[in-house]
Amino acid sequence: MSLHGPPTGITRLSLRARLVAMAMLCLLSQGVLAADEIEPFVGKFAGFATVEKASGTEQRNMSVEIRKEKKGFSVRWTTAILSASGDTREKSYDIRFVPSRRPGIYASAMKTNVFGHDVPLDPLAGEPYVWARIQGDTLTVQSLHIDEAGDFEIQRYDRRLVDEGLHLDFIRIRDSDAERTISTLLQRQ
Q1: What is the CA radius of gyration of the chain?
Q2: What's the confidence (pLDDT) of residue 103?
Q3: For residues 126 and 117, what is the distance between their CA atoms, to the nearest angstrom?
């Protein structure tokens, strides 16, 4: 290669190959950092809470399992609602999250698009739009629901690391009004 002339085709290709390799390394390291970021939250946790309602109180048994995945992580949570009348309802969710282009923010991977990529659901089609973020010692999972009238509901689960496990703060907001809050300890199992 001449010091004074333009680079040859081989040198340009070599430079392009090096740039591509560096870009790939950056993308791969993002996935590794994301996996390391979730590590302190990985495990199974369980607890209960008493919820005050207009019709009386409800006991809720809650559990969450956070798993590291090949790309990102998944969160599975279950709530068993024990009403004053003795009826029991159980709700479970299992959502996988993958790194987004923004550090610490994860997109839900709830369906696959026509190109085979994991993507979130569509809130304008009546499906929940779910995302997560990790900020310090707190893993937050949020969901946005838009009903047929165009009104919205946001649910937010803050799971903060504490010595005993996770401290859960839940809030459900419907059209700007806090409709329900729950705060409890989920102990590591």
Answers
A1: 22
A2: 92
A3: 21
Residue 60, beta-bridge partner list: 49, 81
Which domains, ranges and CATH numbers included, belong to the chain? Answer: 37-188 (2.40.128.20)
10 Å Cβ neighbour count for 1? Answer: 8
Mean pLDDT (whole number) for 6-33: 49
pLDDT for 166-178, tens place per residue? 999 999 999 888 7
DSSP string for residues in 117-180 = -EE---GGGTPPEEEEEEETTEEEEEEEEE-TTS-EEEEEEEEEEETTEEEEEEEEEETTEEEE
23: number of CA atoms within 13 Å, CB side?
6
Mean pLDDT of 97-113: 89
Mean pLDDT of 123-138: 91
pTM: predicted TM-score of the whole model, two decimal places: 0.75
| Average pLDDT of the chain to the nearest whole number | 83
Under 8 Å between Cβ of 158 and 169? yes
Give the residue among 165, 118, 110, 117 at the shortest CA–CA distance from 141.
Answer: 110
Beta-bridge mates of residue 38: none
